[in-house]
């Protein structure tokens, strides 16, 4: 029986918590031993540097490699992304040139990427990071959330500290879970959520860098974020023509037969970019299995059908009635 994404996610969250707990336990024991040694006159430095393991549990670090040429976006969407990049790169010019000093205090920018899974939000963040020469720190709600009271908001503060220290772009995936609407406090979870959101708002206000939120449920994001987010960028599900371009872009440099027709592939399969990537990987596996030198149209067709079937399994039987996308 295939496990669902949700159940896997739950397991990862539990495991992370256990690792952190273990980490804490070792740390306590270690500090205790150190104290005893000091009392016995031991002077050398034994203590590990304030351990980064604590941080790296919370974010995945991406060394950005992707460029604008790897990205297929609608013209106006790409324009917005380029505008954000331009501001970050030319902050001084913008502030001095237009006399903005009084109303713009720091080169910080907060963006909100809204769109279905697999529409290129993470990829775009990577492209921005690469273009401005910074690392990308991806923080997911499931990695930040902690069942201990107050720990989730501490994790948020830690993530901002870490990004500041390493001069990285901070990318909050599943942002609607962290920045959700205010609720009237009914129980401990509600007050915890309110605390988390307030800490996020405060950190955002003080952060002198680039923060990107990604969500497919923009309406769940608390209104208080509106003022602090400078640009909302919509990532649409690609149309026929964009899909054709995504196929082309992702197949650049691959060993393929001459019969491959991106136009047909783009029209036939109502895929997200993420689906197309998976279909290509399937096609390569099929070709490998048959010891072919190159990937053929037939392999891409079979690879795409596997993605459609996968979608069917993941979403029940209504695939044809309502197209769903997997990232
Ligand atoms: N607009 C796009 N242009 C080019 N490739 C895309 C696009 N959207 C998705 N992809 C492909 O799908 C993969 C997954 O997309 P991703 O950026 O993770 O989507 P999201 O973050 O919106 O869920 C990307 O790494 C890329 O290979
Ligand atoms: Mg993503």
How would you portray this structure in words?
The chain is an alpha/beta fold. It folds into three domains: 5-48, no CATH class; 56-235, Rossmann fold (3-Layer(aba) Sandwich), CATH 3.40.50.300; 240-315, Helicase, Ruva Protein, domain 3, CATH 1.10.8.60. The protein contains 14 helices and six strands. A six-stranded mixed β-sheet has the order 1-3-4-5-2-6, with helices on both faces. Helix 11 (240-250) crosses helix 12 (262-268) and helix 11 crosses helix 13. The protein is globular, with a radius of gyration of 23 Å. The protein binds adenosine-5'-diphosphate and magnesium ion (MG). Adenosine-5'-diphosphate (ADP) is lined by residues 71-73, 115, 117-123, 246, 249-250, 273-274, 277, 327. The site of magnesium ion has 4 residues, from helix 5.
Furnish the topology, listing elements before pairings.
Elements (H helix, E strand, L loop, with lengths): L4 H35 L13 H4 L2 E4 L12 H15 L1 H8 L10 E7 L5 H12 L3 E5 H4 L6 H16 L2 E5 L1 H4 L9 H19 L3 E6 L8 H5 L2 E5 L4 H11 L11 H7 L4 H17 L7 H19 L12
Parallel strand pairs: 2-5, 2-6, 3-4, 4-5
Antiparallel strand pairs: 1-3
The structure holds adenosine-5'-diphosphate and magnesium ion.
Adenosine-5'-diphosphate binds next to helix 5, helix 11 and helix 13.
